[in-house]
Structure formats: structure tokens, C-alpha cells
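Supplementary Methods, section 5.1.

A reviewer requested that the exact input to the structure prediction be made available. We therefore reproduce it here, unchanged from the version used in the analyses.
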Amino acid sequence: MQKKTKIIVGAVVVLAVIVLLAAAASGGGSSKAEVRYNYSIEVTDSFTTDSGYTASSGTGSDFAIVTWTVANDSYSDGFSTNSLTFDADLTVNGLTYGTSAYMYSHPGYLLATIEQGHSASFVYVYEVPDGTAVSDIEVSFEYTWTFDPPKMERDESL
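The structure derived from this sequence is encoded cell-by-cell as follows.
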């Protein structure tokens, strides 16, 4: 009987350790956002570049200009606006579009790191099919930085 009790106690201890390790690996269940964001989308056939020229979309396409506002409340690594790190895509009618080279000439483009406690706005530019309505656009993103991306939450008050 005593041997059975030791086995049961041992199993309970092992199970408790596994549960504690799983909780620690998942951040202890904390879901508080480190970075808050919001975005707005404008669809247009042209925009004025940062050098004063007019960039026009090609035949059969429009520009989808996404203005992001990001507040870095507590992400100590800093939030990068680099599209290689903050990889945001648009999906229209089942097709996913990445950023356009026109993005770099838009006056709202910003390549920077938003440090903890600060906020900023920046623009990503996409080329989508001509006639696309804002309501037809789905936004998705992935923040690919080391093994510790920020916990992000949309805040429409930004």
C-alpha cells in the first residue's frame, strides 16, 4: 500500500511540474498587450511622392494605402516599422498582396524603431485590383523578430 501511495504522489509531483513549466513557457497566461495598433485604408489611383511627383497605379490596379498607428507601451525591444520585420499583407478576393516598391516613395513611409513608451504612424503601400473597395480588403500581419515578438492588440482609439 505504501508503495502505491509513493507512486501516486510521484505522479502528482511530475504532473504539477509539467503544468508549471507549460504556464511559464506560455508567459504565465498574461495577455496584456505590449503594443497597441490601429490602421486605416485608403484606395486611390495615385498619390504625391515625398519628392513631389505623382505616382500612378498601373493599368488594372489601384493603390491601397494603409496608415498604421502603433503605440509601444511596454515592448522593450522596440517596435520595428521595417516591412521585413512587421510583415503586413492585404487579401482581396482570396489573393494576398505584399507591399509595393511605391511604398518607399510615399511621404508617410517611415523606417524606424518605435521605442518603449512612444508611438508613431507610418504608411505601407500595396497595389490591388482596380475598383477594390476598402470593405473588400482583409489585413493580416506577422511580427517576425527573434523568439519574442510583442503581444499586440488592435486599439481603434489610436
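Residues 2-25 form the longest helix (24 residues). These observations are discussed further in the main text.
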